[in-house]
Amino acid sequence: xxxxxxxxxxAAAITLTVPACDKPSSEKIETEAxxxxxxxxxxxxxxxxxxxRGNPFRQEWTADFGVPPFSAIRDAHYLPAVKQGLLEQRExxxxxxxxxxxxxxxxxxxxxxxxGAALDKVMKTFSNITNTDINDTLSELEAExxxxxxxxxxxxxxxxxxxxxxxxxxxxxDRLGLDEQDARLLELTHRSFVRRGAALxxxxxxxxxxxxxxxxxxxxxxxxxxxxxxxxxxIEITDQADLAGLPDDFKNAIKVxxxxxxxxxxxxxxxxxxxxxxxxxDLRSKMFDGYRMRxxxxxxxxxxxxxxxxxxxxxxxxxxxxxxxxxxxxxxxxAKTPAQAEAFLxxxxxxxxxxxxxxxxxxxxxxxxxxxxEGYDWWFYADKVRQAKxxxxxxxxxxxxxxxxxxxGVFDVATQLFNIxxxxxxxxxxxxxxxxxxxxxLATGEHLGLFxxxxxxxxSKRGGAWMSSFRSASNVGENIRPIVANNLNITPPAKGExxxxxxxxxxxxxxxxxHGLHGLLxxxxxxxxxGVDGPRDYTEFPAQVLEHWADDPEVLAKYAKHYxxxxxxxxxxxxxxxxxxxxxQGFKTTEYIAASLLDLRWHSLSSEEAxxxxxxxxxxxxxxxxxxxxxxxxxxxxxxxxxxxxxxGYSAGYYGYLWAEIxxxxxxxxxxxxxxIYNPELAAKLKKWIYExxxxxxxxxxxxNFRGSDPTIEPLLxxxxxxxxxPSEG
Length: 730
Ligand SMILES: [Zn+2]
What we know:
The protein has helices spanning 49-52, 78-97, 105-114, 117-132, 136-157, 160-171, 180-196, 202-232, 248-254, 268-277, 281-292, 303-319, 325-330, 338-367, 378-390, 403-418, 503-520, 541-550, 553-559, 571-581, 585-603, 607-612, 616-626, 643-646, 656-674, 680-691, 699-707, 714-719; strands spanning 235-237, 262-264, 420-425, 435-441, 447-456, 466-471, 474-476, 478-480, 483-490. It is of the alpha+beta class.
């Protein structure tokens, strides 16, 4: 995600369709929500009647399931509809604020929740289409529209008169006799205002605003420096012997046209390929340093910048009454406190380090006595070990994973677990590749939602895989059911050929479908907490847990059949695939946790502590040594190029990917332990407390209600191959 992923805190108004995430393995960076605490006066917006004439976003959509009239929508329709939507939203907010009646739950909290409906209608389609079918006009529109939305959202979040009314309702919350969902809406609305700083005194607000402004500049500068520092590093090669071990297509890709010259850069893909396959050890060492020392000195040194970012974030948190930025960030998440997140990471780190030691020994054995393995050798020798111990032909898997069969496989899992059925339907779509299904409750026959799948890559579609919504579910007066899309980027097959998936793509399909079910099954009153929105260390759980069914032998036997012969995938092949999955996990887990710990430690500093740091690398070294990270394992990110946390929206949140893995491993273990991966009692709880519940309660409570207890970490350790007594099967 890029700038379009607005982290809008207010419960009100603008609920953008935010793709529910790529798979966690992919690089996902969001911009930091740098909200202003003092709302700048809003500029006038004008839109004429002529501009709105015939605009599909201003009409009622009458197609089945409320599908947008895609064929009638032109690029030129978006901006006027957005403007009109913003104007209506301003009126709706003004009506709440100017209401002469005393603030009530209905006239303030519900009214706020319901405001911005016209804007939401156009933005849902706009954000979907700009992700799947972008063009120059739409790109320009994005650059114009998103800043407008941020500005309006800030104006709502920092409207003192509005907050006063919210505050008034909140103050009497115990006497209002609200039901659970109403009480939740009130709680979340109030919380989002407070967490933005609406409750601060004018004097403190001004200080926070100044910090936000400085931070906005620094986080942008951090990203810019990193880009330039990355571009600046190059190694020129004139002797082809230096490229020994590398594949031809790689060599061709880095060759300077018309010359006997090759350029190595520290772009991640070039770096990974060279570090894994490049035989020249001296060059590997240079690449290694080039990569890990980026933006650490000279003109583009991010060290002083990130120290200042850490200090300012700490200062802001202190002004809001928190001990640290991490304490502020983690409060609404499952981990709740930095100490809990840290304890979790340390717990997984211990067996990961043990495993890494074994991996190191395996590699040293290959090397012999010639030299000691160094950080720049790890990738290279790990790959040698992999070839010796775990090699298998991954292309042999593909014929067993034809896309239609895989999709039927995931539908069948959902049917068995939740008693829901999928019927293909013909609807308008945004692209001829898109297919749609009507999702029904098989017990009642009731329509639950529309599921749409856009599986193939094309030039106009952004990379990765994600889930998104064209319409969110809500039930205020009218029961509105959702329209949910899954988007993947599978290369289209040659004409007349079947689409055969790699196992990684199979997992992605199950994963995104898990997000999809979270959006489709949701049974909540207010769209604010329907479906997939939730704390960062929880929202991956409903997606990740479904991946466990994908490679369960019982499920594979139903869907993984050879597309030509119908033969079920041989168990020997599955075993090889599973064995390869735990390879090098000691290293991978350690490098990830090292980066997560750096993130937490930078953001657990007080402003005073941060101000005293003069050398970012020295601080980093101290932290890594304290946790016993061996020098030959590089953290996944070093501070100076950790853009997730210093220029993206992940500060004090990088641990979240692994945290969600505790839940999915533990959640699936419940089914396994019961002896029935479709255990009806567990499935009913999973449906009720996870897929239907959205954000009606705090994430830890939802999980406990499903599982009957807090999650334990052992299943995660086992899945990563760290369990002490490895069971002989399973
Ligand atoms: Zn996901």
